[in-house]
Amino acid sequence: MKAARVEGTATPVVIRPGASERSWRGTFLSSVDNNHNDDDITSSSLDESVEEMMTFAERKRFLTANNGNEEKAMAQLQAYLEARDEFQGTQLQLEVSYQSLIDSHGRDYYDWMIASETAKEAYNEDKSSAMLPRIMRTHIMEDGKEACDLEGHRILHVLPAQIDPALFSLKTYALAIALYLDRKVSRESVETLTVLLDVRGGAGWANPKAFNLMPFIEETCSILISMFPERMHKTIIYPLPYALTWTLQSIVSSVLDAKTVQKLAILSGQTGVDAPMPRQKLLIHVDEKVASICERERLEAFTI
């Protein structure tokens, strides 16, 4: 049994590794803690269609996530590749329609729009003219480079308080995240990312209570594990009331393996719209400039 770090508190949150995980189109095989050599990647028993479609980096990541078990790894990888292929046609059409957004709003906004509109169509929610709130984003620093943590891992900034279940179903938000992440990481790399999950509310947002965000946090963790094995360097959830850390424990126990638990950090603090960022705790993971741009982008995302 492992303990996730709850920074700013004296007691660790104990999380029991779980088995089942949900994904964007069904259930992928569980990822498990593992250790294997690159030599394990060679085998002659692969499904030919998977072998043709996958990259070397994908093969390595999925094998690593499945303890070198090729049968499980290839089944999980095939499910991912088939699901990915399912949405390619819609995304290609939207890329043409939204091309001008790159110049007017930037590449990241463009990627989110394509992912979110594809998700809306997939669940027949594209009749709504409302935009899916941009709950996940990357940031560009003054030097033109993407924001990274202190170890050089790119940051994904998540603002789940924008989620409004009255506008779109949670499964649509979850699919949008999956499609967005798939656009942000190269299939040719084994890059790992750091997720900053800020649960504070915002002016003009739906602002569900922190407790009601737990299913979204569970779904986000599930997507990272099942669709993007070995992509998560670290997930930092902040600021979470101390009492809710125990609730989080029971929720993530069904989706986090022991290895992933070690990559989770929970920063305690207040969660209101005007609540301050737990800056000193966050600076253990990112520098001052990155913390500042995350806070600035959060404030600029307010709608009133």
TrEMBL record:
CRAL-TRIO domain ranges (all copies): 119-304
A Pfam short name: CRAL_TRIO
Organism name: Seminavis robusta
InterPro entries per UniProt: CRAL-TRIO_dom, CRAL-TRIO_dom_sf
Top-rank taxon: Eukaryota
Protein name: CRAL-TRIO domain-containing protein
TM region positions: none
